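User: Can you predict the 3D structure for this chain?
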Amino acid sequence: MRKEAEERRNEILDAADELFAQKGFDGTSTNDILGKVGIARGTLYYHFKSKEDIMDALIDRYSARLLGNAQAIAVDKSIPVVERIIKVVRSMNLSGGSSQEIMEHIHKPQNALMHQKIQKVIINGVTPILTGIIQEGIAQGLFSTPYPYESVEMIVTYANAVFDEEVVEITNEERASRIQAFIFNGERLLGAKSGSLMNVIQQFGSVNGQHNE
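Assistant: Here is the predicted structure, written as structure tokens:
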């Protein structure tokens, strides 16, 4: 019974994911979802209280996918440290399904709590993943810091706030300047050789910007 309930829940999420991508969140009705899955309204409300509840569950699913992809890359020691950091950062770029609709939805003023939830997932989820890679880099002499977790947390938190256009309004010129400062200070926080993290942190700013367009 539990397996059947979980399968039904995922069917509803899959249908909503596809419909939100096609018609947008506001343009999709619960009737649309009912028709696509072929279930009664009572069944839908057994699993989800509202359309907003479905969107929240989709955010949870996307977040779990992002962190799962990032973690899989992080533990692959066949990939050099710096390249692995770049791959982890790139893996955080939402793609496919209703990802764009999700990001547009959570940036609406009335959905500030959803926006905060995504930020929390990124800061609390990505920081320990990247810290593990940085610790490998310390062992290899690529980085030198007694505070690997705290340094990564500062970098992730700054990027998540300053490169989020809903938090800080900046022009393209100001953004370019912020990225240069981000690189300069990030290398010093981690005790890295000057210029060694140029590609990493540029990718970080780029991916974060894509999240918030």
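The CA atoms of residues 24 and 101 lie 6 Å apart. The chain has ten helices and no strands.
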